[in-house]
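Anyone? Bumping this.
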Amino acid sequence: MVSKIYSNKIYMGFDRFFFSIILIFFLAACAGIHPVPEKETEKDLGLPTPEIIEKPNSEGQAFDSRMMASHNLTQKGYLLLKQNDFDGAIRLLERAVGINPSDGPGYFYLSEAWLGKKNFNLAKQFNGLALLYLRSNLSWTDRAHLQKKRIERGLNGL
Amino acid sequence: MFSQIKKWIFGIGLALVLFLLFSLTYCWYLSGNIEKRFSGRKWKIPSTVYSDTTLLFPGKHVDLTFIEEKLKKLGYRKKMAQPEKKGEYQLIDTGIEIYFKDLNLPDNIREGFLAALDIDHDQINNIRLIDTDGSLSLAELGPEIIMQFFGKERELRRVVSINNIPKHLSDAVTSAEDSRFYTHFGVDPIGIIRALFTNIRYGYIRQGGSTLTQQLSKNYFLTSERTLRRKLNELFISVAIELKYSKDEIIEIYLNEIYFGQKGSVSINGVGEAADFYFGKKVENLTLSESAVIAGIIKGPNIFSPYSNLKKCTDRRNQVLHAMKNKQLISDQEMEMAITEPIKTVGFEKYNRQAPFFLDYVSQQLNELYPETSLSSLGFSIFTSLDTEVQNAAEKALENGLNRLEQAIPAIKREEPIQRLQGAVVVLQPRTGNILAMVGGRDYNLSQFNRITQSRRQPGSCIKPIIVASFLDVFKPSDLLNNEEISYLVNDKLWAPKNFGDIPEKQISVRDMLRLSCNRAAVDMVVRGGLGTVIDQINTYNFSTQFLPYPSIALGAFEVSPLELARAYCAFAADGIQPFPLSVKDVIDENGNSLVRRHMDIHEVISPAKAFLISSMLESVVTDGTAKSLVKLGIDFPLAGKTGTTNEYKDAWFIGYTPDFLALVWVGFDNGDPVYSTGSGAAIPIFAELVKSMPGYISQNTFTRPPGVVQRKVCKQSGELAVFLKCPETYDEYFLEENKPEIKCHIHASPSSIKRFFNGFKNLFK
C-alpha cells in the first residue's frame, strides 16, 4: 500500500516535470528580447555579507579568537552600512581592523563606507588594503576589484 | 481724635497700597530677569573627557589585577557572591564574573548583562553568558573619565528632567525641606512663625523657615550673606518665581541646583549627580530608602553624607521617611521596609587628573574648535583614543627606567629637579593612528613641556630604516655596502663618519647595516643612492622638518618631532600606510548630537612590499642586532625595532612595533647633556617594561608577506644568489619581485667542468 502511493507520487512528479519543460519552451518562444542587466557594481547586487576570511599564515587559537572578535565588529559595521549610517559603520570597522589588522572584509566595508561618503581618496586607500588582505579568496577579490572600478569612476568624476 | 485715627488708617492704607504697588512692580521687574535667566542656560556643565573603551575578547592577554582596577575605576563594586546588579563583579576560581553596566556611547548603546570571563594563563579563554550559558566573542567595558573642564565653580552636575525623577524622591525632598511646598506662594508664613517659636524656645537657630523656592532664590540669584536686604530680595524673588513658574518647574530646577557634598575639590550638585555619586545609579532607579538619604543630605551635606557619618545619615533618612509617612505619602509598610534597608554607597575616587600630557594635547586641539568658556559650561562629552592601561604602563615604565639609569650612571644625576634626566613615551596603534598613551616628560608638575609633541631632537640611527626604504628600488637587502673609513667633502670640510661599536667587516649587507646600525655603511648607501632621492622620499613621511641634502642625513643629524618619527614608523608596521595620529575621536553635546567625529585618516607612503622588507630587516635588529637585549628582558613575541643614539650620547631612542602597536621611547636631557648610554642601554629597558604591562596588545601576529615579495637564498659573502653546495655561508632573504638578485654568486659560482677537472688535477700536485 505504501509503495503504491509512493509510485503514484513519482508518476505525478514526472508528469509535472514534462509539463514544465514544455511550458518553458513555449514561453521562451513567445518572449521578446530583453536586455540583461549589467552585473557591474556591488551596489546593484547589494553588499556581500561579511564572512570570516582565513588569514594567510594564521596560527593558533588566540589569533582565531582575535579574528572572531573583529568579525563581530565587522558584522555590526556591515549592518550600519546597510542602513547608510556611514559614520557609525566607520567607527565600528576601525575598531575591527584595530583588533585584527588583517581583517580584509573590514577594509572592504571601510572602503564602501567612504564611497558612501563620497571620499574617493580614502575609499581607494582602504580598497588597496582590502585587495591585499582578501587576495586568497577569489570571490572577495572580485568584489574588491569591482569596488576599485567604482572608486576609479568616482575619482574621475563619472 | 477720630480724625487722627482716620488719618492714621488712611496713612497706613496708603502705605500698604504703595507697598503693594512697589512689590508688584518689583516682582514684575524681577520676573523679567528670572525669565531671562531661566529661559537660557541654567547651569554651567563641565565638558568631560573620556578614555577609549576596553574591548575584551577570547584570546586577549589580560592581567586580572588590571581588570579589577579598571572595574573599580569605572565604579563597579566587588561582591563575595554572584553579582545581582549592574556594576557588580566577583572573582571566581576560573576568572571573574561581571555584571556589565549599560553602555551609552556615540556608536554603541547596550544594555548591561551578566557574564563570566574565564581566564587561563593570563588569557581570556571564554566570555560566558551566565543566564543563557552562551558565549560572546566580544565584550566592552565603558570609558573612564580622564578629565573635566571645570570653570571657576568646579561643580559636577548632570541635569535630569522632572519626568525622570521618581515621585518618592521629590516627595522625600518636600517632606524634608518644605512640607507645604505645593500650597504656599513661595513664602510660607506658617513655617516662618513655627521656626520663630522653635528658635525662641531653644534659644538658638534650630529651624529655618525657608521654602524650597526661597532656597532656590538664594542659591541661584543671591549670595549667602545674612542681611535684611538680601532676605527681602529673597522673598520678592521667591514670589516672582512662583508667579511665573509652575510647582513642577520650580522643583525640577531646585532638584538640579541644590548642593549635595564634595568629591575632593569638586562639588556635587543636583539629584542626578548625587544619585550617581552616592549610589552609582541613575536617578530614576533610586529606591525609596536611597531617595530619603538624598533628601536628608540637603540639610547638611557634610554632616549627613553616608561617606562622612553613616549613623547620622541613617537617623536623618529615618526622619525623612517618618515625615513622608506622616504626610501619608508612603504607607507604614513602605516606611518599615525602607528603614530596614541598609545604606549601600558605591564609593568614589577623588577627581584625579590622569595622562596630563595627553590631555594638554587634546585640550590644544579642542581649544582650536571651542573657547574655554564653552568647554567649561556646555557639558560636551569628548571621547578620546587613550587606553588607560597603556598610559599607566608607560608612565610607570618611564619613571622606573629613568630612576634605574640614574642609579647605574651617577654622572647623569642632577640635584635640581627641573634639570633631571628626562624621557618621553608615545604608544600608537599603527593601523588606525590611535594614540594609546603619551608621556611627554618625567614629572608634569615640574615641567609641562611635552617632549613628544613639542620637542625636536635628532633621531640618530632611528632614521636609517626610512633611508633604506628610500632606496629599495636600487639596493637589495643583500647588497653589500662599504664599511671602510671614508672621508667625505661636505661644505669644503672633510667629514668621516664613525661607527658606534666595532664592526670589523669591510662590507656588510643592507640588512646587517640596519641590524648592527652601521654608520659608515648607511652613509655609503646615501651617497651611492643619491641625496636627492632621500630628500624626496623622506618628505613623503610628513615630517615638518626642512631636510637638507647632506650625507649626515643617513645618521639622523637633523631634528624631528618624536610624534612625527613614530608616525613615520607606522608605515612600516601597517603595509606602507601612514595614519594621522588620532587623539580626539568624538565630541558630543549634552543632547547627544555629534559635533566632531574624527575617523582614521590614512595614505600610502610606501608599497606594502617595501614595508614588509623593512619590518623583516628590523626584526633582525631585535633577534640578533642592537636590540637583542629585548629577548633577555622577556620579549618573546615577534617584534621589529630600531635603536638610536646621537652624537655625544645626547639622545637615546628605541622604536619597536608589531602589527598591533608601536611604541617610541626617548631618553635625554632638555639641555642636551650626555646620557652616557645608548638607545639599547637607556631606552630598551623602558620599552620592555612598558610592553610587558600592556598584555592586551600582545599577540603572535606577524607581518604578513604581501604580493611582490620573493624569497631567495643568497651568499653572505657576495650578497648574490647562492650556489648550491658551493657558497659556504648562505641565508634566506626577502626581495622585491622587481628588484631581486638575478646573478649567481661570482665568488663561489662553479667554473666549467673541464676547468674544475684541471683545477682538481693541479691540486693533487700542490
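Late reply, but here is one note on the structure posted above: Chain B touches chain A at residues 55, 57-60, 106-107, 123-124, 137-138, 429-432, 434, 574-575, 577, 585-586, 594, 597, 599-604, 608, 659-660, 699-702, 704-707 (CB under 8 Å).
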